[in-house]
Amino acid sequence: MSSITLIVGAEAYRTDAQPERSNEARDAQTSLDINTTRLEKVLLATSKHFISTLLPEGDGGLHTVLKLLDAGEEGYWSTRAKFGWFREFVRRYQGYLGELKSVVERDVLDKMGSERAEEMIKGLWSNIGQGE
């Protein structure tokens, strides 16, 4: 980027010079940075908890819901509700989750199998960043 120097009288002014920020502006930026970091930590922890609850070690969670559906039975309503809440969480916060997408994919999703329940979670997560 080039800068232009204006000479007015005996003083030179650079047009690309940044104005000095006030203490209030610095404090506001620091507060914003802290709150953004906190938000990212909360969203990351919430995402990981949803996924671990929906896909517990061994049997249960979405695996059991899908087995019941395949058998023409109903049940596990609490897990179905949690999946609905997870879907809504991803939809509602996808603007914020976009920055965390690669972290969750690397730390959680890439370590999952490829069964139908895992693919449902990955499918929801893959929609992040593709618009509202």
Flag low-confidence runs: none
- Count of separate structural domains: 1
Q: Whole-number average pLDDT? A: 82
State which percent range the strand residues make up.
5-15%
Q: Number of helix segments?
A: 6
State the major sheet.
2 strands, antiparallel
Strand order of the largest sheet: 1-2
What structural class results from the helix and strand content?
mainly alpha
Which percent range fits the helix content? 55-70%
What is the approximate shape? elongated
Number of strands: 2
Gyration radius (Cα, Å) is 24 Å
Q: What is the H-and-E element order?
A: EEHHHHHH
> Span between N and C termini?
35 Å
What does this structure look like?
The protein has helices at residues 23-54, 62-70, 77-92, 94-97, 101-107, 116-126, and strands spanning 5-8, 11-14. The protein has 132 residues and is mostly helical. It contains six helices and two strands. It has one domain. Helix content is 60%, strand content 6%. The longest helix has 32 residues, at 23-54. The radius of gyration is 24 Å and the shape is elongated. The chain starts with a strand and ends in a 6-residue tail after the last helix. Strands 1-2 form a two-stranded antiparallel sheet. Strand 1 (5-8) and strand 2 (11-14) form a beta hairpin. The mean pLDDT is 82.
